[in-house]
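Morning. Coffee machine broken again, so started the prediction first thing and wrote up yesterday's gels while waiting. Chain of 537 residues, entered below exactly as on the submission form.
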Amino acid sequence: MPPTTAIAAVLLLLQLFFITTTISAPIVGLDSFLAQQSRVDPTATNDSFLSLPSSIKKHLSHPSLNNPTTPSSLLSFQLSVPITVKLVGSNFSSSSKSQLSSFLSSAISSDQFHVITPFSYQPSHHLSISHSLHLDVSHSSNSLSSRLSETLKTHLSTVPSSFRSVLAAVPHEIIDEIIKQDYEKEKPINGIYIYILNLGSQSKPYAYSYTPGDPSPAFTKCLGTVWTGKDRYLWIDLGAGPVDYGPALSGDGVLPRGEFHPFASLHGRPKSQKALLSDLASLVWSAYQVLLVPSLRIPVPFENSLIVEFIHIHSNSDNKDSFGLDWKLIERNFMDEVNENGLLFGDQSLRFKKYEVNLAECPICSFAILRAATSYTSRYLFDNYTLIVSEYLDSKRLHQTLSESAEEFRKVAKLPEEDFAGRILPVYVFDLDVNTILLLDRYHQSVAFKDMVIAVRTKSTQTVSDYSCNGRHVFTQSRELERPLVGSILQSMWGVSPTHMVWSPRHNSTLVDYTWSVGQTPFGPFSEVSSLSFVQK
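Came back before lunch.
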């Protein structure tokens, strides 16, 4: 190769290298400006370009060859997620803080926010915004651990032994009240607090209950070891348990009783401090992925006005049973959050409407149910193998029929035409006059889609689910739809993911993990609570 040609080739490679390096570099100052604008103008009602500092505006208005403006540089906004981990208990050594920080810093890196079900015309499973962890680990005061330990010991001394469970049920409120007081002392708060409790051995094994009342053969109370507050904190008691919950027969996401899950770190064979802290790091990493930077269930465009239409399709208008379908209770779950400045941005509004539809006067409704009805078979060993045929509704077929016949449905059901600029979410509730169990897709009382929610119930009051908790089967109260509907509306209207689902780009699929599905969450079969924690809002 001639010398001039070689020199030209080298210069071309160097030029390409510098251009590539420049393209990948973000615009200095743009991230901090966008972060400030998101606080000042969260609904982006004003043109933010006019407010740009002159240096950034000059960069965007007059790009140069050495400093070009590219889509990648404009879409490089990174959100810092401040997390404070507080170690509560005298059993944590003085070196725990630095070791846990080291483990977490190496395990958690910057990543993009993921989407479980993207739009078909934009099939990317991630947003342009990325997140990065800003971590602070600290030891709590001795007074906090002393108060918690004393409260726990006092309560356990008064709890009689139970024949139904080896775990004594401790109301979560007695611990949460103390932790919340400590959390409020930290105000003004910038970030999320994770309290990890190690209060030492207790007189009897215990776990936390989340609703009043005692369990019975027909009502399983799923005890757990975690709680997520309405404010931006959560706590984990390592001394509680061991607990187990998840699919009873087969399936992903089970939390096993064995010592290999971080929740059971203190219940197996003795571990070194380093091994314990590595378990805690994996626990914090899981909470970060599932609760603090959760995957978006569906991408939701911003609208100023939101309307939820409850469409109750029932068989007999003269003998309606409202138990388990309290529309006001469902509405209150959301409006309480709105009144506390949650869920909505700026001048966004949220309204609820309710319509009654008689199934006998709605042929398209009957057609939709008949078209969606299907069955599956299973064999059980009693005296011999017995074939059992069970029916269920295919939610996708039901969704297809309702989507294709939306105008006809509104006409037949005598629903008013909406002259409305905003987002309308119809919630179809089929209240069927049959005595058999009929669920959606075999397992669900309610299913969320991008453009609607579908729920179903029959006269049957309960069924044994395919899940178990602490050695007992979980029963589904099939007449009670309030909690399933709250969860489905959250998914469809705001894109909130269930607390057991997360998108994994490495697996290129949705992963299921029920670790965080107890306590204050409207999702999953292991909680009876329909109120929202900070995770859902």
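The longest strand covers residues 126-139. Going to sketch it on the whiteboard this afternoon.
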